[in-house]
Amino acid sequence: MTASDRPEPLVKIRDLHFRFGARVIFDGADIDIQRGKITTIMGPSGTGKTTLLRMIGGQLRPDSGSVLVDGLEVPKLKTDELFALRKHMGMMFQTGALFTGLTIFENVAYPLREHTKLPEAMIRDLVLIKLQAVGLRGARNLMPAELSGGMARRVALARAVALDPMMIMYDEPFTGQDPITVGVIMQLIRHLNESLGITSIIVSHDVTEVSAISDYIYMISEGKVVDHGPPAELKQSRSDWVQQFLQALPDGPVPFQYPAPDYRADLLGDGG
Amino acid sequence: MDWLQSLGRTGLILFERLGRGHLFLLRVFGGMSDTVLRPSLLIAQMYSIGVLSFTIIAISGLNVGMVLGLQMYNTLVDFGAEDSLGQVVALSLVRELGPVVAALLFAGRAGSALTAEIGLMKATEQLSGMEMMAVDPIKRVVAPRFLAGMLSMPLLAAIFSAVGILGGFFVGVGLLGVDSGAFWSQMQANVDLREDIVNGVIKSFVFGFVATWIAVYEGYDTVPTTEGVSRSTTRTVVHSAFAILALDFVLTALMFGGI
User: Fold this and answer.
1) Tens of pLDDT, residue by residue, chain B (259 residues)
2) Chain B contact for A86, CB < 8 A?
3) Which residues of chain B make contact with A83, given a CB cutoff of 8 A?
4) Would B6 be classed as within a structural domain?
5) Pairing state of beta strands A224-229 and A72-73?
6) Between A94, A100, A114, which is nearest B133 by CB?
């Protein structure tokens, strides 16, 4: 399949530049997120993966470059246009970001109550369907503080799909979770993608997990896309950096040592 | 020249924060329409900001009124003017102590809670989550709290003054033997509705506006870390206290003149 045969990507990022103060986060990145696929943005901590999601969601504006979502130039949208677009996006935050003062049921019902005028009985049914999908229908009356980290993420996922979005962004969905929870979340992401055709964007540095469920992976480092392709192709990448990352090697293009003066001179010197 | 640089830097930071605070206030005013259209948002916040502050306001008002009754009696009795106790207690409370002390307590109890709540919502990405659900946190979180704080403050100050007068009555009439009729009639004859009570209400309204503005802004603008929320909460109480006391002088000078 040539590039011209492919359907237009849902998210199209071109020549993205962004900096926080003096620190360059993106320095000319090009990324395409294909419709109906699971695409993962992978890279070490602090490379701006979450920042990228925030730019797709319009919470941050790039310094230059374009971020097109479903044909709309996100940084140029007016507030009401942006909010209209966000109704078609779901986001699962790393912490869950559940409203601590509301029950699980009310958390999932929140977007429905805010954006629809559905009768209470229908809202109840919809919430229960979403909670059943993540296996937490029985936990509907609990408060977020009573949930484990993994359960909180599942509720966040149910809330993210409450309005049946066209895409979901997952911010570090596996970080800090036990193996069973990781398995559950992987299965849920795959299931939602296959059964509802939702486009999924995952940012993560968990190589094994994302390799198992992703259709396509972008590896980013120091503001640029180092390599990209399906997981199987990336494993054959000739980039030393990609190999170091995928094989979790402690030293390589990403040095083990933080830049420092010569070790011998440092030990013999008077410090500094 | 270092001190000059440091002074300049501090000045710039101060004016930048003031500027951002005012822009934030404009956004809050812009988001107020939803609060008016959905009174349930306002009522919930009136309960948590106003009703839950009732106990501390009432107990403090009672104590301040009792101390005022005792102190004033001891001074007035030297001049044989103890019958004026009701007037003195009422004027002190309605004009000054009611609005000012209630506002300071309000900043300490409700203001700090507002900052901590909004700050923690930011730190735990709840505000961000709301934005991604296409819900504006200024409209849903900040505006109802701001309006509730502004409306609660005059009511709390009125309760403070009313309970304080009862405290003064209890000490003056009940314990020290001031004539009950004189206590109330002197008060009735010398406390003016417009000059004293309305001015007191205006004061408490202004204090409520400023204290709630500082509280919601500090929460919304907090650095989203544990330390950041802690610093913002402290700043809310300190800045509110400064603002209330400084504004009290300005308002008193404008309302009651004499300068």
Assistant:
1) 789 999 999 999 999 989 999 999 999 999 888 888 888 889 999 999 999 999 999 999 999 999 999 999 999 989 888 888 999 999 999 999 999 999 999 999 999 999 999 999 999 989 999 999 999 999 999 999 999 999 999 999 999 999 999 999 999 999 998 899 999 999 999 888 888 899 999 999 999 999 999 999 999 999 999 999 999 999 999 999 999 999 999 999 998 876 5
2) yes
3) 134, 136
4) no
5) unpaired
6) A114
- Mark yes or no for CB contact B133/A57 under 8 Å: no
Of B124, B125, B134, the CB nearest to A115: B134
DSSP-derived pairing of the beta strands A11-20 and A64-69:
antiparallel
Q: What ipTM does this complex have?
A: 0.83
Q: Which residue of A has its CA nearest to B141?
A: A99
- CB B134 to CB A86 under 8 A? yes
Chain B residues close to A95, C-beta within 8 Å: 124-125
- Domains in chain A, number: 1
Does the beta carbon of B124 lie under 8 angstroms from any beta carbon of chain A? yes
In a domain, B121, yes or no: yes
Q: Number of folded domains in chain B?
A: 1
For residue A145, the 8-state DSSP code is G
* B172: containing domain: 11-254
Q: Does some domain include residue A264? A: yes
Q: What DSSP character marks residue A91?
A: E
Please report whether residue B2 resides in a domain: no
Residue B127: C-alpha distances to residues A93, B138, B142, B219, B249 (Å): 12, 9, 10, 11, 37
- Answer for the pair A49, A5: CB distance below 8 angstroms, yes or no: no
Q: Is residue B1 part of a domain?
A: no
Phi/psi at B194 (5° precision): -75, -50
Nearest chain A Cα distance for residue B37, angstroms = 13
Instruction: With respect to residue A256, please indicate whether it lies within any of the assigned structural domains.
Output: yes
CATH of the domain at A267: 3.40.50.300
DSSP structure string for B75-107 = HHGGGT-GGGHHHHHHHIIIIIIHHHHHHHHHI
Task: Identify the H or E element spanning A15.
Answer: strand A11-20
Residue A196 falls inside a structural domain: no
Range of the domain at A221: 8-85+204-272
Write down the pTM of the prediction.
0.85
- Within 8 A of B126 by CB-CB distance, chain A residues are 97-100
Residue A12 burial by CB count (10 A; 0-12/13-18/19+): exposed, middle or buried? middle
Best B34, B117, B127, B132 member to test A by mutation, with max A CBs in 10 Å, is: B132
Please give, rounded to a whole number of angstroms, the shortest distance from the CA of B190 to a CA of chain A. Answer: 49
